[in-house]
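Lab meeting, action items carried over

1. Structure of the two-component assembly. Owner: GW. Status: complete.
Input record:
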Amino acid sequence: MNAAALAVGFTTALHRAGLPSTPERAAWLARSLQLIPPASQDRLYWTCRAVLVTSKEQLPLFDTVFASVFGAIDGVDDAADRRGEPNAPPPVGAGQGRSVTRPDPPRPRVSDASPPQAPAPVPGQSGGVGSGGQERESVLLMASSEERLHGTSFAELGPEELTRMRTLVRRIVLATPEREGRRTRRSQRSTAQLDIRRTVRAAQRTGSAGTRLVFARRRKQLRRLVLLCDVSGSMEPYTSVFLSLLQGAVAGASAEAFIFSTRLTRLTRQLAVRDPDQALARAAAATPDWAGGTRLAESLRRFIDGYGRRGLARGAVIVILSDGWAQDEPEQVAAQMVRLKRLAYRIIWVNPRKAAAGYQPLAGGMAAALPYCDAFISGHSYSALAELVAAIRGSRPARAEELAHRPHQSLGRS
Amino acid sequence: MTGPARDGAEDEVRALVPDVPSLMAALDKADYLADPGLATALFLALRLPQPILLEGEAGVGKTESAKALARVLKTPLYRLQCYEGIDAGEALYEWNHQRQLLGIRLAEVRDLDLDESDLFAEQYLLRRPLLKAIEHPGPRPAVLLLDEIDRADAEFEAFTFELLAEAAVTVPELGTITAAHPPIVVLTSNRTRDLHDALTRRCIYHWIDYPAPERIAEIVRRRVPGSTAPLALEAASAITRLRALDLAKPPGIAEAIDWATALAVLGIEHLDADVVDRTWGSIVKNRDDLELIQARGAAWLIGGRSG
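Predicted assembly:
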C-alpha cells in the first residue's frame, strides 16, 4: 500500500472524528510507515499511535477511529480499561459498521437525557433593584470603593442583566497570596545569600575596582489558584456566572478550573480562549453531565488522585463552588476533604445557598466539608464575590460595612 | 518554525537497530522489557528527527526506558531533572565564578599576566546536561533525557526546544558550539500541568500503560536476583489486585520490586497471609490505604478470595 496515501487518509479520518492533526504529522506518519512496514495490524496501530496521538485523552477516540478504519485491534482494546482514565472522552458511538469516510463526530456519553449545553439563563424575574444597567455597571466596577453594596442574587437576574453580570464577573481580578519562589533577584540589602554569579558580573563591568557584593533575595511567587465548580442541577441558577468567574480566573490569574457534577472535568484549556461565548460553548461540549446529579466526594477524589497529588493542589488556594448537596455519604465527603486539606494551602467554600435567611449548613456533604474549610462564603451576588476576592488574597474585606453586611465567616481550624 | 536539526538516524544507529523487533531484543538484553507499543515509539524516536514524549503513571518505567535506550546505543545518557524555576544556568552551562575568582587571586599572588580570555576558557566552564549532550563527540548520538518537563516553567520549555531545534549553543565568550551528533531526546511528563501545544506538536508521543501481572513478574525476576518465578508472579498478581482497589497511592512496579526484594531477604518462597501481614510496609505507603486493605484482609490479597 502507498504509505503517503494511507497516512493522509487515516489522518483525515481522525480529523473528521475530532482528533486534530497537522499535515506535518501526516508526513511523519508516511515516513514512519516506510521505517516500520505495517506487516501486521498490531504494528500499524502502534506506529500510527506514536505519531498521531499527542495526549492520553485522545487514546479512546484514536482507538475507535483506528478500529473503524482498519478493524478491531486484538490485545489492545483492553488497554483502555487498564488506563482507567476518569475523564477519557467516551468512545465515538461504537462505529463498527460505519463507513470510513464519514465517522460521526465524537458524541459525549449523555448520562440522563440532559444534552450537553450551556445552562440556560433563568428567565423572567428581573432583580429587585430596578435601577438601570448603566448605573449598576458603574457601581459594580468600583467594587473596592463602592458606596452601596450590590446584593442582588445571581439567581434573580434577568437574561440581559445576567449577560452584563457575566462580563463584570469575568473582570474580577483574583490574586493569591505569595510564597517564596526558587528563583532569586538581586538585592541591595544584605541577605543571607550572597550571589557570587552576579557579584562577579558586576565586578567585570566595573573593572574589579571596589567590588560590591550583590545579594540574592528570593522572588515572591503567587500561589496557584484552583477552582472547582459544581454544575449539577441544583446549582443551575449560578453556574453561568460562576463559569464566567472561572474563565476570568483562568485568563487573569492563570488558575486551574475544574467542573463537576457526576464526574470531574478539567476546563482550563477550554476556558483559556478569549471569546467568552466560545469558551463556554467549549466548556459545555467537554461536559457531558451538565446539570445532572452531584457526586461531591467522588469528584473530589478524582481531583486529588488525578491532579491534586501530582502537584496541582500542593500549596495552592482551592476554591470550591458548590451547594454541598451530594449523593455521596457525608463521611466520604469528609474523608476527601481531609486529604485535600493536607495538600492545599487554603480551602475556600463558596455556597450561594448560604445567603438565604436562616441558612444552616445541614446538607450532609456541606456539614461534613465545613470543618476543613478556611473560609465559607456565599458568593451569590457581585458584592458577595468581593468577599471571595478577599478570601483568596488571604485578607479580610477592608470595609467594616462589608463585614457587617455579610460576615466573612472564618473557620480557621485550630 | 525551525526544522529539526537531526535528520533521521545516522548509519551507525541504523546498523545497530535495523527494525522494531531488533530494538525490542536489544532493550531486553539491556534489562528493559518493552512492549511492542513502547518499542515502536522508541524506534521512531531513534529514526525520526522528532523527540519523544513519554507519559504514564509514576513508576511505569519512563525514565528507565531512556536509560535502557542509552545502554542499547552504548552512548552516555545526559539527564536533566526539571523543576520549578530551573534556568539556563542549570540546564546549559555556567561559568565557574568561584574558580575564576580563585584564578585571579592566584595570578595576583604569582604575579602572572592574566588575560580575560584566560578567565573565560574551557576549564572554567561548567557544562550542564544540555551542553554535554550537544557536545557529545559520537560516534553515536547521546541520549538526552528531560525528566518531568511539566515541572519546569513554560518559558524554559520553549527555550529548550529552540535550542534542540538548532542543536547549537552560543557561548558568547567561546563562540558557537554545533552538535556533530544531535542527541536523541526523550521527555517525560507526570502531567502536573498541560504541556504547551508547541511542545506536543513537535514530539511523537507514547502513553505507557501499567503492565500486566506476567510482565511485572518478569521485570521483578530480572531485578531481584533471588526471586523465583512462582513467587514473582504471586507478588505481581497481588499488586495488580491491589491496584483494582481505590487507593490513594496505588503500588507500582517499584513497589513490586521492593516487595520481592524484601521477600527474598526474608527467605520466603511462598506468599501466605502471615507473610503479607509482616511485609505490608513494602507495598502500601499510606495509612488510609493500609486501613482499607487490612479491612479486605491478607487472604484476599494473595488468593483473590474475599476474606
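2. GW to write a short summary for the group page. Key points so far: The CA atoms of residues 168 and 204 of chain B lie 22 Å apart. The interface with chain A takes residues 19-20, 36-37, 40-41, 43-44, 47-48, 50, 52-53, 55, 83-85, 87, 89, 94-95, 97-98, 100-101, 104, 151, 190-194, 200-201, 203-207, 209-210, 246, 248, 288 of chain B (CB under 8 Å).
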